[in-house]
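Hi C.,

You asked whether I'd gotten around to modeling the 262-residue construct. I have! Everything is below, sequence then structure, no commentary in between.
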Amino acid sequence: MGEFVSVACKGSVATVVLNRPDLHNAFNEIVMRDLTEAFATTGSRGDVRSLILRSEGKSFCAGADVHWMKRMVDYSFEENVQDANLLATMLRTIRECPKPVVARIHGAAIGGGVGLTAACDMAVALESAVFCLSEVKLGIIPAVISPFVLEKIGMSSMRRYALTAERFNAAEAKRIGLIHEVCATTESMDAWIDERCKEISANGPQALSACKQMLREVSSADWDRLQDITTRRIAERRISPEGQEGLKSFLEKRSPRWGLPE
């Protein structure tokens, strides 16, 4: 798929692997373009029901690559905006992937690594994982990742961790909503992911995509628009072929015929 990103599919599950272990899977422009392409391409595949994002080496993602940061120091304002848009596009592509995305976290998730975690639908981490919104230590701010992280952890926790730049552990990440499960071993973490992907594979594939779209719309709409959005979305799904099959199969006490991947 790219220099630092690979994709492997097994049944209905695609695994996107960030493979830059010598630099703790830190971002540069190549990594961001590779990840964007991987999720855009794989997320559109009809045979894929869910995606897993994982990393090789000691860390999940250490944020910005130091060498990339050295180049950014001399960028103009316009060049910095263009560069930041690469990160924003990558995170939006993951968040808006039509298929559910599960993040598998180990080691450190620092700065942009926290943003990468937050962009995924679900996340599980080892007990030993550490997280940090480290940007203010460098005299900058977690601007591009802030909408994604804020969506997960809320304003109160965002204010604390973005302003102190303190590290926090997996238990705290779960408490504030950044991740959904903490596991003691890689085996139990992979078992948790396998179970979520199995559950996802039993659901209507078009309904999953429609559900993700609906949640994005609801999260950003004001109350004057919410009733119109939600009533129209459920009506669309009820009359769709997949919705009809799902409702009829439930009433007829049989499995739906949208099929489960082998």
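If it helps when you're writing up: The first strand starts at residue 5 and ends at 10.

Thanks,
B.
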